[in-house]
Specification:
The protein is of the alpha/beta class. Mean pLDDT is 91; it is low at 17-30. The strands form 2 sheets. The protein has a 6-stranded mixed beta sheet with strand order 7-6-8-5-9-11. Strands 2-1-3-10-4 form a 5-stranded mixed beta sheet, with helices on both faces. It is built from 14 helices and 11 strands. Helix 2 links the parallel strand 1 (35-41) and strand 2.
């Protein structure tokens, strides 16, 4: 007869040992109280860019299941837009949402994550360079050299930005000379080289300045932002296509000390929320920008393609700016060299592999040219 009592005892011991082993091998997950982070964007509350900032925060908040909560305030709620980096660095804010071009005054190299033609790379390729071509480490090195203690996530490749809004269409390079014009980052240097008088206003101040005649023309970013900020109410001509900000990205900032206190699983949630937000931002931009472009055309806004002569002049101006900045700032040259090496390889691949989609679009949507009349 079997000793059922001893058998049950041994089984219980084995079961307990197995449970203990599983418990010991499972990752430790923090169950602390909610960590609340106060963020500020560099955008007005009504702008689609502020919506992008909230989209990121919502992803983090949802995935964190109450353990982490990010609240996003609009531009100016705590500090002006151009002071965001300092506020996050000092801990006045726990984090923020903006663009690297707004930190141009700290180091000209920071504007290379957006300003200029990027050796022919489109915005997604610039982001690929950042993620896989050495850009991320270079950005960390720049911040370290400036004694800025932040965690930076670059994400959200933006569509090519228009040349801008003008009281009269720009037909030639000479039309830019003496024009009081708004832009930011290294685009300031490009348009200064082209003869414009540049004023780097933050987004919320542009349209009021146009309306009061403080500036003659301005660019901001995209059809949705331009429409909601009120450009069509004060100016009726928009010039599309430009190399001044043809590959810009967004930046999400965290105060490094605050970030370091977060458990590993919450930092992982932030990592994946950034990646998801980057994809969603790209999709949303296509949908919303195209809708607002159509609505502005219905309003009577005239859109013009920037003449090729002006685009070439921008490239000529850019080469002069790059030569000067590279001589002044060794880190600027280092970033440029890194971008050039990545662009030479990735650009060759993209240009060889990608079909010209205009051929298919024109086949189905472009009106056929009128037939020639017989004599």
């Amino acid at each position: 007869m079997k000793d059922t009592k001893n058998t049950r005892g041994r089984r219980g011991m084995l079961k307990g040992a197995a449970v203990a082993a599983v418990t010991m091998s499972a990752p430790m997950v923090s169950r602390a109280d909610t960590v609340s982070l106060r963020f500020q964007s560099t955008w007005p509350a009504k702008d689609i860019f502020h919506e992008y900032a909230n989209d990121f925060a919502k992803k983090v908040n949802d995935m964190a299941s109450g353990r982490l909560k990010i609240e996003v305030l609009p531009s100016g709620a705590v500090v002006p837009a151009f002071q965001l980096l300092d506020a996050v660095n000092k801990g006045t804010l726990d984090g923020g949402h903006g663009v690297l071009a707004y930190h141009y005054g700290k180091s000209s190299a920071l504007a290379l994550w957006g300003s200029g033609p990027a050796f022919g790379m489109d915005p997604n390729m610039v982001l690929a360079w950042h993620q896989h071509g050495g850009g991320r480490q270079l950005l960390e090195d720049i911040y370290k050299s400036l004694n800025i203690d932040v965690v930076s996530y670059v994400y959200g490749p933006m569509p090519t930005q228009p040349l801008g809004w003008f009281k009269k269409p720009i037909a030639k390079v000479q039309d830019l000379k003496g024009l009081k014009y708004r832009t930011v980052g290294l685009a300031v240097d490009i348009f200064t080289e082209l003869g414009a008088a540049v004023n780097p206003l933050p987004g919320g101040e542009i349209v009021p300045a146009l309306d009061r005649g403080l500036i003659d023309a301005a660019e901001f970013n995209n059809a949705s932002s331009d429409r909601v900020l009120g450009f069509p109410d004060v100016v009726k001509n928009c010039m599309l296509q430009s190399f001044h900000q043809s590959g810009e990205q967004f930046e999400i900032l965290f105060n490094k000390s605050k970030y370091a206190t977060l458990p590993a699983e919450l930092r992982s949630i932030i990592d994946y929320a950034v990646q998801a937000s980057s994809a969603e931002m790209s999709w949303k931009a296509i949908d919303r920008n195209s809708k607002d472009y159509e609505e502005m055309k219905k309003q009577g806004i005239k859109f013009y393609k920037t003449p090729d002569a002006i685009l070439k002049a921008q490239l000529d101006a850019w080469d002069k700016v790059v030569e000067k900045k590279s001589a002044e700032n060794p880190m600027f040259k280092k970033v440029m060299d890194s971008q050039r090496a990545f662009a030479a390889r990735a650009g060759q691949w993209q240009n060889d592999y990608m079909v010209d989609f205009k051929m298919a679009y024109n086949r189905y949507f472009k009106a056929p040219a009128p037939a020639a009349k017989k004599a």
